[in-house]
Amino acid sequence: MRVDLFDFELPEERIALRPAEPRDSAKMLVVRPGEGLDDRTVRDLPFLLEAGDVLVFNDTKVIPAQLKGIRRRGDAAAQVEATLHMRVAPDRWLAFMRPGKRIAAGDRIHFGHDANSCFLGRLDATVIEKGDGGEALLGFDLSGPFLDEALHAVGHIPLPPYIASKRDDDERDRIDYQTIYAREEGAVAAPTAGLHFTPELFSALDAKGVERCFVTLHVGAGTFLPVKVDDTTDHKMHAEIGSVSPETAAALNTAKARGGRIIAVGTTSLRLLESAAREDGTLAGWSGPTDIFITPGYRFRTADMLMTNFHLPRSTLFMLVSAFCGLQTMRAAYAHAIEVSYRFYSYGDASLLFKEDNDGR
After folding, report:
1. I need a labelling partner for 244 at 20 to 30 A (CA). Which of 59, 98, 103, 321 fits?
2. Coil/strand/helix, residue 303
3. Residues 6+ apart with CB under 8 A from 319
């Protein structure tokens, strides 16, 4: 499909720079294809779901994956930045480097160094390979938990570019840019639909009889990469590592068999469920990399509903929600959201989408 079909104009003032307080006070646009739009809040979620429904959350935990340092090549030095996006070994990460033209295989990079100080922490790496589009494979001098500890000491929270271009990260982001149920370290971007949930909202959902399950997809920085091609068939997705436990797969199979609805919280949860699903829509335990790219025409096999934030124009995520609800439905929904001042992107408001072919449920 033509990528320009997924373009729209978004006023800059609609981009949220901080989350709503409290988190569950955010607005939520309910989208039922063929039935119009309903302006609600996230706190209304228990009233929109039924006993026996199951919410599927991504329990990945964001790490301080934004690194600043000095590249050394002989006597030459230059400031560089790295955004880690996928771990491939205990001591190796794939990263997007900026500026990429300053990087070559064999370079040494000393993270925690900048032009104003000689040493802020200890984390050194070697460029093992240089890829396309500023990507590089970094081999760190530390490994496993020692590398993890160093990242927490030296790294910054990797705020999305549309926030980072307007302000620096701070200590508040270490809490704000993390779900309350985050457990498995490895993400470099938050599964942002989950940011809206609070202990109070969980209690209200429990009282309604809504169940919850957890999967893990370590979101990579590739989620923010723009689609630079003219046709979706030419776009390359970056892989992300995920897993669905056998216990979660069995629980979701049981819920669907009894008529319960599956609600994916976030596009990451949905992409992982679809990666793990069999042709008949049932699930089994699954783990590995996924680069699934969902565009209109895709046949969903798992979720009945999707809770997600509002996404960038021409992005793979806007393509995904257009596949879920229909392109014209989502274009109309986004136009409405812009008109009535919904807040967009990672720290913004939510939407609750019903699948276009959900048989009226």
Report:
1. 321
2. coil
3. 1, 6, 232, 293, 294, 295, 296
Q: Are 81 and 97 in contact (CB under 8 A)?
A: yes
DSSP secondary structure, 114-150, as one string: BTTBS-SS-EEEEEEEE-STTEEEEEESS-HHHHHHH
Instruction: Answer whether the bond into residue 22 is a cis peptide, omega within 30°.
Output: yes
**What is the pTM (predicted TM-score) of this model?**
0.89
From residue 359, alpha-carbon distances to 13, 79, 262 in Å are 38, 56, 14
Q: Which residue has the tokens 């390359």?
A: 236
Mean pLDDT by 10 residues, the chain (361 residues): 94 95 97 95 98 98 92 87 91 92 90 54 88 91 92 89 88 94 93 97 98 95 78 89 96 96 97 95 94 95 97 94 97 97 96 78 33
Residue from 349, 351, 348 nearest 17 by CA? 348
Dist CA 93 CA 84 (whole Å): 6
Of 318, 358, 333, nearest in space to 36 by CA: 333
